[in-house]
Amino acid sequence: MSIVAAILTELGGATSHAAVVSRELGVPCVVGCGAGTLMTLEGTVVTVDATAGEVLEGSLSWPR
Q: Is 17 a catalytic residue?
C-alpha cells in the first residue's frame, strides 16, 4: 500500500483497515464501492475523490 496513488475496496467502512492505513499514508481512499465493482475498473484510468467518495472515469487535473 505504500506506493499506491489511491485505495479502492469493494467492502468496508470508515474504520476498515484500508481506510485507516490510507489516512496514515495520506492517500485518497474510497471503501465499500460494492461487490463486483472493481472488476469493471480493471485496466481503466480513474480519479479517486476521497472527499466526495467518488470514483470518476479518466484522469482529471487537480484542482477541479
A: yes
